[in-house]
Amino acid sequence: MLMILCMPSKPTEPHNNFNSYNTNKPMPVISKNNNNNASSSVPKLFLFFTFLSILSLAFFFFPTTTITTTTIAHPSLSLQSSLEPTINVYVADLPRSLNYGLLDRYWAFSPSDSRLGSDSDRGIRSSNLGIKTLEIPPYPENPLIKQYSAEYWILGDLMTPPQHRTGSFAKRVFDPRNAHVIFVPFFATLSAEMQLGMAKGAFRKKVGNEDYKRQRQVIDFLKKTESWKRSGGRDHVFVLTDPVAMWHVKDEISPAILLVVDFGGWYRHDSKSSNCSSTDTDMIQHTQVSVLKDVIVPYTHLLPRLHLSENKERHNILYFKGAKHRRRGGLIREKLWDLLVNESGVIMEEGFPNATGREQSIRGMRASEFCLHPAGDTPTSCRLFDAIQSLCIPVIISDNIELPFEGMVDYLEFSVFVAVSDALKPSWLVNHLKSFSKEQKDRFRQNMAQVQPIFVYDNGHPGGIGPIPLDGAVNHIWKKVHQKLPMIKEAIIREKRKPPGVSVPRRCHCT
Ligand SMILES: *[C@@H]1O[C@H](CO)[C@@H](O)[C@H](O)[C@H]1NC(C)=O
Ligand SMILES: *[C@@H]1O[C@H](CO)[C@@H](O)[C@H](O)[C@H]1NC(C)=O
Ligand SMILES: *[C@@H]1O[C@H](CO)[C@@H](O)[C@H](O)[C@H]1NC(C)=O
């Protein structure tokens, strides 16, 4: 049933009109292959259900003994695998200036310009002068920006020629009417970070704010499209990894599916804490996010992967590197710091945001059994994903944390969760961690090694253009979006039946 619900409302023959993706520059890598093989999920589905009904009829008319299990096992298995659902994704026709064009501009800054980029980016600018002419330039290495690079890898997968996308869960369609969702290819994080780097003062203003101009351009474009008018934006997917991405237009995109790293900086929609019992998407107000319609995505890890076979003995119990002082929820960090800094076997260090700091983290995370993950200014950070790639058992100290791919990954199998109140009792944490046996820790590490790939975006191809790993972050994100489809569809249909002239629904009266 779910799959029927998820089919596009008008399953017309797929059109071969490639939506010319960029308007400024041609993108040969894609346009060569514009006769998309937006293939045969409808016929396959039809075949499957035909097969199912024949099968059930067979069961009905013949007692099960007459059909041996061997005769039905094989066809049903092979059909099942070809029925692996996909999500049909249409990429909105935004100009290149709103995605890869931003990277052209990023790399065009003078190497001596200290405002944007890290040491490594300045190095890339001065040593690789050809970078500006690349069709798909690399994403910045500056760790502050790189940790949010989901937008780059998700688009890279969608831009890959169809014949190289056979492992992708998202099927790119070239007619929005065949799409389950519309992907908005705006590099919202890079846009925000570039504005913050160049003129931080203008960021919260609209005047003189390039980022705001781009946000406006995206929204004004989308609101004119048939797809947006039909859905009110509910089936549009925005990547908003940086909490300040699309800051000025949050209320306008609030009905959409937002890919966020956590709910920090947003109000959380929690039906239990309000008197609104409704669980549909149209009750989620502006500046709110919800696990109902939004998807938590991983930060991009910054440290290299340690394979289980390379794991060495770990001499420290607990490792933490980061700033001692942090805003908002990070107050506990300071208290934890004082509690732990002089414990034996615990390494607490303040790091530098450069190559030295990176080496320090790699060493620290690989030489410690556990890695501390206290609340920062938002509940999560890329540190958690660095710990997983380093096979350092995460110790998550946060009373309200949202994690990616919940339900697909069981974090209890490789992490330790600690209540803030316990963590702040003197000696409690170290004693608790010491109580884990070697076998338990080894099991955690084995489980962690299995989930490492799930949190990796980079597919190893320049520009992210090329086949993606089946078990990587991009496919998991689309699988999560796929899970939301029935509810989104319901919300769109409910909205559509409202007679003209009916304004905002007030089914819920909070007093
Ligand atoms: C829910 O309603 C009750 C009674 O009307 C009220 O006292 C309470 O404050 C409301 N709670 C919220 C979260 O609005
Ligand atoms: C940790 O030990 C150092 C050196 O003995 C001392 O100066 C410092 O005050 C101690 N810190 C805390 C928080 O106890
Ligand atoms: C990183 O920064 C620290 C402190 O500023 C400095 O001592 C160190 O040499 C730097 N390392 C590199 C590789 O630039």
Automatic annotation (TrEMBL):
Chief location of this protein within or outside the cell? Golgi
Instruction: List where in the cell it is found.
Output: Golgi apparatus membrane
Q: Which domain of life is it from?
A: Eukaryota
Which GO CC annotations does the UniProt entry carry?
Golgi membrane
Q: Does the keyword Secreted belong to this entry?
A: no
* Example GO molecular function: glycosyltransferase activity
Q: Where exactly are the transmembrane stretches of this chain? A: 45-62
Ranges of residues in domain Exostosin GT47:
85-432
Look up keyword Zinc-finger and say if it applies: no
What topology in the membrane does the UniProt record assign? Single-pass type II membrane protein
Q: Write out the entry's keywords from A to Z.
A: Glycosyltransferase, Golgi apparatus, Membrane, Signal-anchor, Transferase, Transmembrane, Transmembrane helix
User: Family assignment?
Assistant: Belongs to the glycosyltransferase 47 family.
Q: What is this protein called?
A: Exostosin GT47 domain-containing protein
Q: Which organism is it from?
A: Clitoria ternatea
